[in-house]
Amino acid sequence: SDYSLEPPRHPSLKINSKQPFNAEPPRSALASSYVTPVDFFYKRNHGPIPVVDDIERYSVSITGLIDNPIELLMKDIWKLPKYVVTATLQCAGNRRTAMSNVRKVRGVGWDVSAIGNAVWGGAKLADVLELVGISKLTRTTKSGGKHVEFVSIDKCKEENGGPYKASIPLSQSTNPEADVLLAYEMNGEPLNRDHGYPLRVVVPGVIGARSVKWLESINIIAEECQGFFMQKDYKMFPPSVDWDNIDWSTRRPQMDFPVQCAVCSLEDVTAIKPGKVKVSGYAASGGGRGIERIDVSVDGGKTWMEASRHQKTGVPYIAADDMSSDKWAWVLFEVTVDVRHPTEIVAKATKA
Ligand code: MTE
Ligand code: MO
Question: Is the pLDDT of residue 104 over 80?
Fold first, then answer.
């Protein structure tokens, strides 16, 4: 594989793996802005970054269990109504390094920053599927299609040199309210190469692994995608299961991510002087459920203080209220605490 054409990256990113390139921003930078700047957005790859230089000829095919397969050029996708959705993308491996402190886990290590919040611009997948005769809110096509598979142009070793791929249910894909996008913009700019130029899927509220970058084809299929990242990775098992007795078929692929909460204003190892300390960070819940409450403890979890929550500055956050909150986006929190003795500071979020 060829890593000689990788794009430039911001020097402050913490590199967890060079080839493929996997990197995250320092946690203090992460929670300082509601919308994560593209440079500081975590980068999660499984192979070299593809080079797409002929945008006029780049196309996405839609095939599988449909009557009339088609090829869409970028200009066809640009013509569809454009939606702008603020959504948090989180890798299922976020905080894996801390998990390994309890028991060693496999995979690239991540601190708390394999997550970011961006403003994605693009066409709705539900509108794109209408172009092949699949109407809104369809759950099964006439020919038995129940899942929508996204296949990339990149190549990764987990797929034996084949492309990265994943699928989501057809019911989610045809539901305009699920806001699944074929995105060509991130934070108001064309996607950059690291994040999927020229076109990627964004599945709000779902682990990042399903938001396939460098999209090449969309296949309507009967069973969920059988690719590595759906069947042999990103599943959750109890502690009794180990690498020598794992039976992957006993669990469903992870989709909506669970509620998450992390302190970003203090590193794990930071020693602080006694007195008033500002504690801030992020919380996120999958499936668009929102965050009902965030509590911070300065006595290792014995007593708790509620933190204030916000998304956009100056707008009070109310969970699951489409008028005042971005349902697919993280919630930032802040509270000032009084620290007297050596202690452990903990934050927890409750999903709505
Ligand atoms: N899409 C392709 N084609 N190749 C990949 O390696 N990684 C996935 C997903 N889409 C990946 C992909 C994973 S595991 C995550 S968490 C997100 O992309 C990361 O997106 P980002 O790099 O834009 O942050
Ligand atoms: Mo991921």
Answer: yes
